[in-house]
Amino acid sequence: MDGKTDGQEEKRGGKLRLGVLVSGRGSNLRAILDAIGAGRLDAEVAVVVSDKPDAPALRYAEGPGAACAVRREDYPGANEFEDAIAAALDERGAELVVLAGFMRILGPGFVRRFAGRIVNIHPSLLPSFPGLHAQRQALLHGVKISGCTVHRVDETLDGGPILAQAAVPVLEDDTEETLSARILKEEHKLLPETIQNVFVRRTGRPSCRNAE
Ligand code: GRF
After folding, report:
1. pLDDT confidence of 211, banded at 50, 70, 90?
2. Which protein residue has the closest C-alpha to ligand 1 atom 6?
3. Range of the domain at 193
4. Of 56, 91, 115, which residue constitutes the final position of a domain?
5. Which residues, judged by CB distance below 6 Å to any ligand atom, belong to the binding site of ligand 1?
6. d(CA 206, CA 150)
7. Nearest-angstrom CA–CA distance, 197 and 164
8. DSSP structural state of residue 66
9. Residue 155 lies inside a defined structural domain of this protein
10. What are the CA-CA distances from residue 127 to residues 32, 124, 152 (Å)?
């Protein structure tokens, strides 16, 4: 985070303003809001941006102007689409961009614009199983431990520097659904905790823990 962000945080009583990008269910967004409500995360959700107007996640956006749908189909090209997302984030003063189940790859222009200020949650222990269906990939490979990762977003697919991970054992009789559900439980703890540790408290301390 740069010096400008420090100033902004001071003005707003230390609350980090989050712009959360979603495409679907929104349970990670819900976990962020729960952590804020419980005083575990000194942040506020300034805006929720979805590429799908009917994403259930949008129902969690609180306050006027907090929910914003930016549909890819409404823009001629990827650049225009991403400019519209960036404008929504800038308008609401988002300092950190959180990809919480945002199912699109953001281009280099967007990544550069928010350099060092984008994080993603992914349901595997990266660098294993980037991309779609990470839990299915883990089962197909027969790994015995999987988990989830919070990482900084760079121009590669799920390849940016890792900030924190949580390990989840893969059980003999796991299906994609049961494994996904156990990993998701850990995602809900790891994402708010990492935002707090790395971007609010700025310990910059990577974390690694096992599921209880
Ligand atoms: C999560 O498993 C996340 O790791 C992945 O997409 C899923 C989103 O779930 N990137 P939700 O919308 O937060 O419930």
Report:
1. low
2. 101
3. 120-150+163-212
4. 115
5. 24-28, 57, 100-101, 121-123, 184, 187
6. 10
7. 10
8. -
9. no
10. 24, 8, 13
